[in-house]
Specification:
The protein has 183 residues and is mainly α. The protein is built from 4 helices and 2 strands; from the N terminus they run E-E-H-H-H-H. 4% of the residues are buried. Belongs to the flavin monoamine oxidase family.
Length: 183
């Protein structure tokens, strides 16, 4: 898949390859150098020996990442909004969140972030409803944090193209004096 990204990386030409199942596990076990050589062999077989060698390669190792285990969501073309609403609908007191429950940015990290904020708001609303009959209605509201180790002066590649409010990209102490998020 070709990614022409002049808006993010002027003049760049990026190729993206998606591997699944056993092939993705095989490639994850290789070094980046071995994967680059293999990819260049395939490209030269397709387009001829004259094509230039890629200057860099990024190989995500999602299968070996204990927090991902090789998955992200990808809804079918014929999917509809009700599908996402059904996936994120709470079951009793259990709420669901994650990139797969964000209609606009499913499959992306910032989709998971936005989904977490939405779910937190829904959860707090339910807690308020339940608390109306109790002694205390005061709740500790936490500012949402995203764990990036950068300052506002740093340029976060690509994130400025998303509609994430800039203040939410950077860590700092909250109005409640809570420490920074640490992963």
């Amino acid at each position: 898949m070709s990614k022409h990204m002049d808006n993010a990386y002027p003049g760049s030409n990026i190729l993206v390859v998606t591997l699944t199942n056993e092939e993705s596990k095989r490639v994850e076990a290789q070094t980046d150098g071995e994967t680059l050589k293999e990819a260049m062999d395939v490209l030269r077989n397709m387009f001829g020996a004259h094509i230039p060698t890629a200057i860099d390669i990024v190989v995500p190792r999602w299968w070996n990442n204990r927090f991902q285990r090789g998955s992200y969501s990808n809804y079918p073309i014929y999917g509809n909004h009700q599908l996402v609403r059904n996936l994120k609908a709470p079951v009793g007191r259990v709420f669901f969140t994650g990139e797969h429950t964000n209609e606009k940015f499913n499959g992306y990290v910032h989709g998971g972030y936005f989904s977490g904020i939405d779910t937190c708001k829904a959860l707090l609303e339910e807690m308020r409803k339940e608390g109306k009959g109790g002694e205390s209605q005061d709740l500790l509201l936490l500012d949402p944090l995203i764990a990036l180790r950068v300052t506002e002066a740093d340029d976060v590649s690509g994130l400025h193209k998303c509609d994430i409010p800039r203040r939410e990209l950077f860590l700092g102490s909250t109005k409640h004096g809570l420490p920074e998020a640490i992963l």
